[in-house]
Amino acid sequence: MSRMIRHDATRPALISIGDKVVAVCQCGLSQNKPFCDGSHRVTRDEEPNKLYAYDREKKRVALDDLFPDPGAEKHSPPGGN
Ligand code: FES
User: Fold this and answer.
1) 4 versus 38: which is more confidently predicted?
2) Closest ligand 1 atom, CA of 13?
């Protein structure tokens, strides 16, 4: 069984444990979870409100056509196209 899980974060959470700071992955792309491995860097130029997927080589694919945002129409300006 597999699942698609949406992650919006583009950087790790920094957690202080004693005198150390640990970076915990929030982007979902780390190969060393729960720790950040720097893979979030590929998300830096994502456009807001777009949906993407990444393959094992961190190649990005836009998924908006497959999974349109059901709330997008609600936020369109009146009379806009
Ligand atoms: S936050 Fe996911 S790899 Fe850094």
Assistant:
1) 38
2) 1
